[in-house]
Specification:
This is Chemotaxis protein. This protein is mainly alpha-helical and 108 residues long. Helices cover 76% and strands 0% of the residues. It is built from five helices and no strands. It is elongated and about 55 Å long.
Length: 108
């Protein structure tokens, strides 16, 4: 398999993994919001902690957008899809590490 094919495979793997994690977080957030709304009271401390994941989801989406923009620009410039180079602009350290590896995201 050529290096560019490996890079594309890696890109697809890390992107799919990140999107699945975001989907899971959004599902939890949706459940919390519906519970609080149906109950009609203020969220309790556990629910407030869960709702703080809205910020994490937003930051992760922004990081992924920056990553893909840098990846596209670098690929146009030099013809290589370099995941490590593209991840340099990602400010969330854990996301940056996950974007650089094909390993199990639980390891990072």
């Amino acid at each position: 398999m050529k290096q560019s094919e490996n890079a594309i495979n890696d890109l697809c793997a890390v992107s799919a993994r990140e999107m699945r994690q975001l989907q899971e977080k959004v599902q939890v957030l949706e459940d919390v919001v519906l519970t609080v709304f149906e109950r009609g009271t203020k969220p309790n401390s556990q629910e407030i902690r869960a709702l703080q994941d809205f910020d994490l989801v937003s930051q992760t989406l922004a990081g992924m957008s920056d990553f893909f923009e840098k990846l596209r620009a670098h690929n146009e410039e030099v013809g290589i899809a370099d995941l490590e180079h593209a991840s340099e602009s990602v400010t969330l350290e854990k996301l940056r590490k996950r974007l650089r590896t094909q390993s199990d995201p639980a390891e990072v």
